[in-house]
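Bench log, entry 3. Co-assembly request; chain sequences pasted below exactly as received.
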Amino acid sequence: MSDVIRILFAPLIWLAAFSLIYGLHGLGCASDMAKSETTIGDNIWPVVLILAWLIAIGIQIVVIIGFRQTKPHLAFTGQVSGILAWTALVATVWSLFPVMVMTGCT
Amino acid sequence: MNALKLHRKLDAIWSSEPGWRGWFSTVNHSDLGRMFLGTAFFYFAIGGILAMLIRAQLATPHSAFAGEEVYAQLFTMHGTIMMFLFAIPAIEGLAVYMIPKLLGTRDLAYPRLTAYGYWCYVFGGAMLLFSLAAGIAPNGGWFMYPPLTGPIHSPGINTDFWLIGITFVEISAICAAVELTVSILKFRAPGMSLDKMPIFAWYILVTSLMILTGFPPLILGSILLELERAFGLPFFQADLGGDSLLWQHLFWLFGHPEVYIIFLPAAGIISTVLPVMARTTLLGYGWVVAAAVALAFLSFGLWVHHMFTTGIPHMGVAFFSAASTLVAVPTAVQVFAWIGTMWKGRPELHLPMLHILGFFITFVIGGLTGVMVAIVPFDWQVHDTAFVTAHLHYVLFGGFVFPLLAGLYYWLPLFTGRQRFFKLGEIAFALVFIGFHGTFLAMHWVGLLGQRRRIYTYDADAGWTTINFLSSLSSFILAIGLALVLIDILMHMFATVRGKRNPWGAGTLEWAAMSPPPSYNFASLPVVRTRDPFRTDTDLAERIAKGEGYLAKPNGNLRETLTVDVASGKPDYVVRYSANTRLPITLSAVTGLFFLSLLLKIYWFTPVAVIAIAIVTWRWVWSSGSRNDSGLVSVAANTKLALAETVEASPGWWGSTFLLVANATFFGSLIFGYAFLWTIAPGWPPPQWLEPWAPELLAGTGSAIAASAFIRMAMRQNRNGQSPQSGCLLAFAATIMTAVSLCSLMLRIPDPTGHAYGATLLFISGYGLFHTLLSALMLAFLSARISAGFVSPQRKAAPAIVRLWTDYGAATATVCLVISHLPAWLT
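Structure output for the full assembly:
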């Protein structure tokens, strides 16, 4: 089962980061903490979102390094989990990139 | 024992009851797979007829063919039937039939559950069909948006049929998903490691996991909307603290993954059939597996792209727009793998290949229009127009129906043992292809010209008349093509001669069985050493039939198969199935009575139905296991394995684990809904918060933790040879204490009909109470099993399963109590 978990691990982290940052964005907008019209402007919330995004990217990089240093039962699992770890890193960078360029709650 | 004697002996053990009675008592996966497929195609025909009626209405402006109300029922039921009663069950049926054969085993993990799921599908579908025949069918569109479908704007029973009927049918999908997940992970031929699994099994595994995590949000939404309609709990009413956008979130949390739940198995068919048609192997097996997994995950990050016009902030919309464009990448990886497979092979243009080519052209166009609607400004222009309807059909018909037809024609010689003779299929394909593109290219066009979806009429001077007429004309060509497919298949089944085994020269195990396959699939379980065992070992079929594999000697009248280690495929333990039984149809009928009591608002009967469900389920579970310790079972020369009841990670434990994954997704969606209403919905804060009460919280959480500790104590006692009864009873008592705390909470919450806050707290505490009582019931069952001698230090499967449920009940009860008290503390 650890092989299956290894395959699912990095995409699960992407899913968690994506949900968390979308949730943080909603929370900020609801609590008036992110109603700035600028990218990094009058309040702290955009910075929080960017920090969360960078942490998520960092975790994905750690997962890739971790996968390279550990071997699963099957070489096949190593190949698939490696591809998916890189995919999850790209997905984290790309799908959450709007925290850098978009306005908060408009 | 020679091959013929072995066949006769095994067939006597595994076959269903003869005649029509067998339909109701069969638990055989081949029977149930065929029944699923037959029923799904029956609904496909009905959904198709509804589509024809829709196109007849739209063929001319100001058509008097159907009135507004009838038209609303037509398009709602067309979408509902195609999505819930055709596409998902057809995939379930194909997977139920094929997976054990592809994996080289004798049946699925839980044969009775397969039957239960099938009958839930039949009864739930019948409810919806009745509503259609009676003219009281759902009429709010297949995604049932409130407030249109709420009690104020849709007071009739129409919407209730959808909410209750679909929830009933979804039980079937969850059952099949648990069944297939565990079967693929554990029930394979010896030696079939993960990297040797047929590619179709990978796709079905991914799809099953998606069903387990994608369907619960819709089940939750349906329950909440039905509670609003039946009891006035205002989850979606903005003036009472609810929010109709919550429905959209819950629906599309299911709805977008649903598209991939439908597409991925179809892609699995392509990945299986295409290499055989190209006389080679699949290019980039590992990359294709990774692409399927990536697609599954990304599909859960797209749901808001159905809500781009709801006023969600730009940043939120941009997240989902970016994720929506990203999904094209793993899809393209698969498409390029298929193109590469054709490139390295020598493709032959048989009928399945024609449908695959139809898939390529259609699905790529659907994918490209998908990228177009992923771009927010374009989506704003075409939202709710016929363009989106056309895109949806390109993706679903192109990505599902063409591959399904390819798969059916590919496996038809296996299903029937006959060979194709009549050449109607090629003509049918041409009509389907031309008819489909004529219908939906035109629909793209008229959508870009501004025709909104779901309108029942339009003005002659709108400029849409010719295009709509062309679309309707083409749709009838499509219908004639599909009717010819049906005739071709029926003629193949009943009017052609017997064919040879493996006519395509495929390498997967299903072709190593007899055609049509016998009730037990394989006389002995083959040892798998390559991904295409039948290609590299041409004598395999003969050796299987002679019994030169695992479990070749029938053990009395027992239905036996074996499980393997998930990764390596090493034999793990032996599973003994129950025989034919009417328990599944009985339980699904009783479940149907429960749903009927809700639909007809006969609420006094609902608890009676619940008790009946508990009694039948008790009897179901009681019939498993044995009262005596038994030794190892001989499965092959020099190989003996333990029985499933002697291991903690038994099939029941695996099934419970995945069922709890679905349950946890449901609970997570509930917490999301609570947080959404609290932070986003207008009309908050509520007039009154729940008064925190520390004794209730401490007693509830403390007893929940104690229950988990006591069930562990019971397991430890059992392992040490002591009676686990005291630990079990203490866990039961602690669970009852938790239930009392949750009852106390339910009695103290603010008026649930006055504000969504009270309604949400009532639902959360009700969820916690339900699971606590379920744990109590399971502990009582375990106690009875211990008393009856079913549990011993060697037979330890049951306590491990009950521990899972007790832990889950304890964890959710704790969360329910904490989050109910939280807002008052925070504010």
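The first helix of chain A runs from residue 2 to 30. Helices of chain A lie at 2-30, 45-69, 75-95, 98-101.
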